[in-house]
Amino acid sequence: MEFTAAVIAGFLNGIVEGNPEIKVNTVAKIEEGQPAALSFLANPKYEQYIYTTKSSVVLVNKGFIASAAIEATLIRVDDAYESFASLLRMVDQATKPKKKGIHPSAVIEASASIGSEVYIGPFAYIGENVVLGDGCSVYPHVYIGDNTRLGENSELYSGVKIYHACIIGQNCIIHAGSVIGSDGFGFAPQSDNEYKKIPQLGNVILEDFVEIGANVTIDRATMGSTIIRRGVKLDNLIQIGHNVEVGENTVMAAQTGIAGSTKVGKNCMFGGQVGLAGHIKVAAGTKIGAQGGVAGDIKLENTTIIGSPAIEFRNFLKSSVIFKKLPEMKSKLDSMERDVDVLKKR
User: Fold this and answer.
1) Cis before residue 309, ω within 30 degrees of 0?
2) Residue 253 CB-density burial (10 A; 0-12 exposed, 13-18 middle, 19+ buried)
3) d(Cα 151, Cα 149) in Å, to the nearest integer?
4) Could you tell me the pTM of the whole model?
5) pLDDT, mean over the chain
6) Residue 316: phi, psi to the nearest 5?
């Protein structure tokens, strides 16, 4: 596909600086730009590359002020990152073929209800009483357990496993290898030091517009439901324990782990490898830095914390300065103790 700078600017409500008729047919990082490519500049750390990039067109924020000459045609927009993402979504929808039809090797139980315009790939299994909404895509080797419901236009990529009685909303995406609805980690210790399994009788509910990364595991509830609310986005390799609730539009980076029965508010942002203890509550808008460890409730909304155990962000920065000085402070303290001992002996 090929577009002029003028057409792109019209789509984004942007302003062209340079040649409005210059054409692009691909996208590239600004530091790896090439002729006929479209790039963007949103992070000031990458500004140096806009003066040397070979990309033909670069999206920039309206407030960007150049400090040297730029060869590329610029398109000024309100938010360069979001505008670039919008273009990628448009190109993806235009170029990605929509698969349809049911492969003859797929196994579909007679009691399953299959909507229109669906795709079911090779060796997929659709269980008893499953409901598959219109426009769904079920890629090869997907397993959907009995009594599960899948909303319209949702996609399950290869190797996804959905256990019985789970509910997947509309326009959800679950990437390869993820497991939804496996048993929660529930075992009761016995007097003989063995552990007896506690049946996990609940399910998992994913509301609409949820996206789950690759190899994510979301455990079914012991009773009731593990709930992932509307618009949540989970990165790869995340573990969500039983009876957890994740609030609307919360995002989590890779290797985050949430222990059972924890309630996460809406609009939260978790960095990579964040760990939350069980049975706690995290207030709406909380931001947790990478490898943050949270053992207790976070009650104040829109708090930013980091560290393990996690503390308020500014306090962490102050503390990190002290961490570096601890050996020196210890030496001074030892010296002061020796001086005090000498004074006591006089």
Assistant:
1) yes
2) buried
3) 7
4) 0.85
5) 95
6) -65, -45
For residue 208, pLDDT beyond 80 = yes
Exposure of 214 by Cβ count < 10 A (0-12 exposed, 13-18 middle, 19+ buried)? Answer: middle
282 vs 302: CA distance, rounded Å: 10
DSSP SS3 for 114: strand
Domain 101-312 sits in CATH at 2.160.10.10
The conformation of residue 298, written as its DSSP 8-state character, comes to B
Q: Which residues of 15-26 are buried (b: 16+ CB within 10 A; e: fewer)?
A: ebbbeeebebee
By CB neighbour count within 10 A (0-12 exposed, 13-18 middle, 19+ buried), where does 83 fall?
Answer: buried
Catalytic residues: 242
Alpha helices, DSSP H only, in the chain?
5-12, 80-95, 313-345
* Cβ–Cβ under 8 Å, residues 71 and 50: no
Tokens for 278, please give them: 């069980």
Domains 3-95 and 101-312 fall in the same CATH topology: no
3-class DSSP state for residue 144?
A: strand
The string of pLDDT tens digits covering residues 23-50 is 999 999 999 999 999 999 999 999 999 9
Residue 234 CA to residue 219 CA, distance in Å, equals 14
CA–CA distance, 184 with 107 (Å, rounded to integer):
28
Give residue 20's pLDDT band: very low, low, confident or very high (50, 70, 90): very high
> For residue 262, what are its two tokens?
């924890």
Q: Which DSSP state fits 30?
A: G
Domain ranges of the chain: 3-95, 101-312
Q: What is the CATH number of domain 3-95?
A: 3.40.1390.10
